[in-house]
Every structure is written in C-alpha cells, then in structure tokens.
Amino acid sequence: MLQIDKKICFIQLGHFLSQFSLHNNIKKEAVENNDLFYDDFINLIELSQSHNGWFTPEQVYFAIQSWADSLSETNLNQWLAGYDFSNFQPKTVGLILAGNIPLVGFHDFLSVLLSGHKVIVKTSSNDQKLLPFLAKYLITCDARLENYITFTEGKLEHFDAVIATGSNNTARYFEYYFKDKPSIIRKNRNSVAILNGNESHDDLVKLGEDIFRYFGLGCRNVSKLFVPENYDFQLFFQAIYEYKDVIFYEKYSNNYDYNKAVFLMSNFKLLDNEFLTLKEDTSYSSPISSVFYEYYSDLNELQNRLQQDANQIQCIVSNNLIENSIAFGQTQKPNLWDYADNVDTLDFLLNI
Fold first, then answer.
1. C-alpha closest to that of 219 among 285, 175, 305
2. pTM for this one?
3. Fewest Cβ atoms nearer than 10 Å: which of 263, 274, 276, 292?
4. DSSP helix/strand/coil, 151
5. Closest listed residue to residue 237, CA positions, set 170, 291, 299, 317
C-alpha cells in the first residue's frame, strides 16, 4: 500500500472530523462513510466522560477539531516533504499510549502508518475508545489498512521497535523491558511561561488557555510561571477569570479543594482566586488546579537554566522574550512537525 493511498485516507478522516464541534455538529453530504460513522461518533463523544471523567465534551471536541485542522492535504504534504522514504524497510512498531488527554497518541499512530510501518497499539485504560473508532473509519476508507493496524489489550509482542509514553516511573520499566529494541521512551514533561509585566490582557487570557485546556493534564499545559520581581499578579488573575467555570467540573473541583488544603496545612503561602492557586516553588510540575511561579532577575540566566533543564520542559511560552518560545494560547495547537520532547518521530521511524 503506497503512502499516497494512506495519506488520502487520513485526509478523508480530517474531512470527517471537521463536522464535529461543541456547539454545532454539521453533517456534510460530501463526507465519505457518514452513513456508517456520523451518528455513532456523536454518541461516542457524548459517552466519553463516562469512560474517563476528564474527557468532557468540550475537551473531546477541542481535540477532534485540532486533528481536523491538522489532517489537511497542505499540512500533510508540508510535514512529509522533508523526509526521504526511498530506502525505507517496513517493520512493525509497537505503541504504548498515554491517556491523559483525548487522542494524545494519535500523532504517533499517524507517523507509524505514513512512514510505511505496521502498528500494534496498546491503548491506555483511560482512552480506549476514540482511537480504535478512528482506525475503523480509516479501514473503511481503504480495507488494505486492516493489514497495518492492530490493537492489543494484552502484552505487547512481535514488534521491531516501540514508542512508549508514561510517567518517569514507568519510563524506567520501559527502558529496561525494551532495552534490546529501537525505542522512543517519553517521560514526564511540563511547560512554562515567561512574563515580563508588559503582556496585554489578551495575552494573559490566551495564557489561561495554555493553563486550563484539558484541565492542565497535558505536558503542553503551562504549569509554571517565571515572573520579574514585584510582578502584579492581579493582572494575571483578572485575565484568567474567563476560565472560572472550570471549578464546576467535579474532578477538577475535588483536586482544587484537596491540593489547596494540603498547601495550607503545610503553611505554604498561596495566591488564590477560588479556582486556581499560585504557589512559589522551584519545581516545574504543579498539581492539578495549581500553577507554580518563580521570580527571575535576568533573562539570559533564565534562558541558560531552561536550556540546562530542557529534558524536563515541553514548551516555553512568551512574547519572544527568549529563543524558541511560542506565542500565548498556542501550546495545545501543535503542528504536525512539532514533535513531543523535540524527538523527530518520523526520522526515528525511517531509521529503525
């Protein structure tokens, strides 16, 4: 099966996904296989929160729309153009997926198939429905894909390479278990934002998107702020007030109450707006419903520190205050060529 045939299937999938949004699902007559999948997909979205309490309709629809935007012919062509597929040797690649946000493993799935390999997928117990549904749609677009896609609930076996995503603890297990196989092992990472006090209200509203999308569960969510001495946090709190309704989600609210109580019992000083706590802390990884902050006095020193800690950081957000930072509000809108952990997945797949 040629790459162009698979690419056509993913473009068709993008058209299919483009029909679904939080406030207005619109069935398009030109989309293939709607008669088989459209109604069932709406039902699956509505049931997703019963499978995983964090997968609210709003978050699932956001993930779906993000992939609908990404799976265009233009984006796929731009992404694939920089690679040489001529000396490719097809193999079988195992994927062990995380389940922290909806469809978090879809990029790995897409990369394996478009590189020409077969894929064996072990989904997370927290996200077992969405990707198999989309795989079924792809196979309906071209039955030959059934020979390339396998899902397994048991032990991952009969593979030539592996891409595994998990916590720092599970990564140690993965590194041992897969030590004899080519692998990408992903660990915990967090994203940070650097402020200088000159951000506009709109910038800080967009920063709220980077913090609260997916309830802060993703590695691309901002969990740490770097601010100058005497920074006025009122500007930040005024801007993120738009996200106040997050406290009405029970799982988030429970985390907010619990983590705030733990902080207070430990006599930590907190800044609090009744749905988010800010705590001064040198760590990058804050608990759900909290963001850590730290003061800086010199941007060059801060940049050097972040470079030294690069293996802990996924994204850096700022108004171009340091090199390679991304704009506010963009952390959960990566391009196909924005690789997790800055590890080029396609390059890895073409050289195993």
1. 285
2. 0.95
3. 274
4. strand
5. 291
